[in-house]
């Protein structure tokens, strides 16, 4: 699920409460089927970790979890560690990463933070590029991933 937007013409608190209420309703329904609801930190404004925290402060269903999305806004003040710590208790079993060798996202720091909460879920690559040799590109991503894992330290 993706909250995806906070319309500027509606008070932010109202939209956040509506999102949380719908997640609670959906979470109750999904729980009857043994399902985890994964809510991606995604979209304009809703990708910002303080807004995700405001949503999850109102989520009561234990099977509704955050999918960390590795957004550029994750490093906004108070920084990656501060933002991560804001929502770490709600991080579920999925984390999205982009190409690990493109851009300046602090993936090693993220992996260290995930280790600090004994994360045991999926780390899913969302590749945005279109390399001519996709197999080589995937092998390169795996190599970088394995180096990140090997260098992971608990924070």
Helix/strand layout:
Blueprint: H1 12-31, E1 37-40, H2 49-56, E2 64-68, H3 79-87, E3 91-97, H4 107-116, E4 122-125, H5 134-150
Parallel strand pairs: 1-2, 2-3, 3-4
Helix pairs in contact: 1-2, 2-3
Structure explained in plain terms:
41% of the residues lie in helices and 13% in strands. The chain is an alpha/beta fold and 155 residues long. Strands 1-2-3-4 form a 4-stranded parallel β-sheet. Helix 1 (12-31) packs across helix 2 (49-56) and helix 2 (49-56) runs parallel beside helix 3. It is globular, with a radius of gyration of 16 Å. The two termini are 29 Å apart. The model has no long low-confidence stretch (mean pLDDT 95).
Uncertain spans:
none
Shape by Cα distribution? globular
Q: How are the strands of the biggest sheet laid out side by side?
A: 1-2-3-4
What is the percent of helical residues?
Answer: 40-55%
What's the multimeric state?
single chain
- The ordered H/E elements are HEHEHEHEH
Mean pLDDT: 95
Number of DSSP helical runs: 5
For the sheet with most strands, the description reads: 4 strands, parallel
Strand count: 4
N-to-C span: 29 Å
User: What is the radius of gyration computed over CA atoms, rounded to a whole number of angstroms?
Assistant: 16 Å
Task: Provide the structure class.
Answer: alpha/beta
Strand content: 5-15%
Brief characterization of the structure:
The chain has helices at residues 12-31, 49-56, 79-87, 107-116, 134-150; strands spanning 37-40, 64-68, 91-97, 122-125.
């Amino acid at each position: 699920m993706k909250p995806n937007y906070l319309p500027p013409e509606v008070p932010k608190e109202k939209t956040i409460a509506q999102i949380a209420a719908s997640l609670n309703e959906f979470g109750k329904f999904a729980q009857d089927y043994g399902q985890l609801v994964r809510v991606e930190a995604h979209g304009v404004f809703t990708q910002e970790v303080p807004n995700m925290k405001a949503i999850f402060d109102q989520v009561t269903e234990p099977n509704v979890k955050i999918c960390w999305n590795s957004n550029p806004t994750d490093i906004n003040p108070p920084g990656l560690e501060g933002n991560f710590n804001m929502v770490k208790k709600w991080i579920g079993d999925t984390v999205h990463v982009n190409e690990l060798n493109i851009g300046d996202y602090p993936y090693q720091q993220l992996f260290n933070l995930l280790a600090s909460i004994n994360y045991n879920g999926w780390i899913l690559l969302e590749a945005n590029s279109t390399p001519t040799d996709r197999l080589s590109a995937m092998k390169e991503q795996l190599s970088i991933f394995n180096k990140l894992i090997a260098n992971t330290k608990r924070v």
